[in-house]
Amino acid sequence: MTLKVFLFRSFDRVVNGLESDNDVNLMLISFYLKHGKPQYHTWNSNKITTVKVVGLIETESFLNARFKTARGAASSVFEFTLAELPCLNPYEWISLLHILLKDEQKYEPIVLDLNTMLVSYIHAVGKIDVEIASVLRKKPIVKPKEALFDVYKVKLGNIYKDD
What we know:
Layout lengths: L11 H5 L4 H15 L3 H4 L5 E11 L4 E9 L4 E6 L8 H11 L7 H28 L28
Antiparallel strand pairs: 1-2, 2-3
Helix pairs in contact: 4-5
């Protein structure tokens, strides 16, 4: 877990907005502090097996939603909101997205926000790979053709290779 996760462009409103990076970062951190629980209350190693969207929560800045999930073989019940996404592991973001995509029209705003967070995460992982390669004085095997800072052009599932 890195503090950078709290700065991922995790909400569609941020991606489509015209705010400066500092304004966006302040808005995201404020949202997480006010509406999220600490990581030790949310992180779990058991896989999410089922998800029920309990309801949407209106906040002053972003749409928030409450989820009730079952985890692992014991189907232990766990509740969280979109404000706790940075405290969950990325595999859970993907699992949650796949489950919600089964009824995409019903959960469209939530799906858009999850998709935005995953795109931002994939971009951040790619950027870290490029930074590590430069420190090791090696050429990265795979790198995006777009500028590293341009997360808005990155598409889920596209991997660019050097020719």
